[in-house]
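#struct-help
A.M.: can someone run this one for me? Single chain, 145 residues.
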Amino acid sequence: MNVLIVGCGRVGSRLAVELTKEGNDVTLIDRNPSAFSTAQARGVLSSDFPGNIVVGDGTDADLLRRAGIEHADCFIALTEGDNRNIMASQIAQVIYQVPKVVCRIYDPIRMEIYRKLGMQIYSPTIVGVQVVREILERPDGGPRS
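D.P.: on it. Structure tokens below:
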């Protein structure tokens, strides 16, 4: 699978590594050049990362084209900003018709709006609440099985 990930933070860098280990072709995009060295310093992204690293704005259609979006099977927006993730995802979905687009949205209200537009959205806010509730509902408070 050919995957483009916008956002080389904790989630984006870890996902990129896992997907490349599974044999996927991954391009990791971030507008901040230091994001890649930070991921390396954290021990997530190695210096011999087999994927492609692109420095630039993941909402720039020309940059996305140079990064190979026209051949992407999957596009994942994982920056820290909801607006940037939404914009990048819409570009991937509408302009380039990427078959699978996943967008991280922190704001649960926005999440529902964009989900109704057919986007694959997840919210770490909602996921976090669900995990805590599951822990609270277990009689022993122990880990999930």
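A.M.: thanks! The first strand starts at residue 2 and ends at 6.
D.P.: also worth noting: The longest helix spans residues 82-95.
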